[in-house]
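Ticket #4471: structure output looks truncated?

Reporter: J.K.
Steps to reproduce: submitted the chain below (327 residues) through the standard prediction queue, then opened the result file.
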Amino acid sequence: MKRHRPPSRREEIDQQDAPPQNERLQKVLAAAGVGSRRECEELILAGRVEVDRQTVTELGTRVDPHRQQIRVDGTPLTSPKRLYFAVNKPPGVVSTNRDPAARMRVVDLVRTDERLFAVGRLDRTSEGLILVTNDGELANRLTHPRYGVDKTYLARVAGCPSRYELDRLRTGVHLAEGVVRVASVRVKRRQRETAELEIVLNEGRNREIRRILARIGHKVLQLKRIAVGPLRLGDLPRGACRPLTRDEVQMLEQAAARAREESRPPDPAGSRSAVGGRRSGTAPERSPRGSRPGRQGKPSGFEPKPDRAPPRRTPRSGDKSGRKKGR
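Returned output as attached by the reporter:
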């Protein structure tokens, strides 16, 4: 029997920070103001709650309030309004959605009664742009590696990386989980003992920038995220937040869709049609009779030249190959 490996501490944290897709039905009802959690459980047990026109009487049933229709006594439950905020996370604030140590979280910087979660992570000592929302679908598109949405950072490092070291970041640096490379990197400012780099990543690993820069011998002194896809941090003060406009939300959705299309492998059927022409609308041209495929046919009236004997080699004075062997 195959044994399943228990999840590691890193995986447990990732699962806790992942945007919730489905929630318990009684919790959704309570969040919508139907009643207390206990009262909502009694409504479910009494058969007064429907999900997609099906009566639900089992406690703990998980639902997606954004995609499923929930009714109480035949009245549709109002779907929670989707909220989107940009937050300038200051150093010392954690981006995890659940913190047993009760430290200040990113979601605590947004004053609302709605249940929100941070999109992705910034480590505690880092700062900059992080999104907060209750839209699990968009959050998944912005953070999942298969979509590859760009995140732009400013990193102040000790020393000044050479051109060779910057090329190493582009071609790939070996970490414990594999080879990691940046989408782009450039030096914005050089000083006597430090340098400021602009780095673009399209994947999110734990403390990735700090680790790859440490591998090439440059410690990160300050790290700030300035953009997520097309959304820029701008002049938002540290520790402040603002709601996103409808156009900004659409820009993020389009960026995720575009990154997804660019990351898809080429269609093998399309590549065969481009190479062989078998799936295209026109049949491939046939070669003239008597000629081999892939070679041009010979013009009419063409007469091949007679084969010439190879020129006879004149042996040199010291060449033993031209001497006759005696018996």
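Triage note (M.O.): checked the attachment and the full token line is present. The chain has a mean pLDDT of 79.
Status: closed, working as intended.
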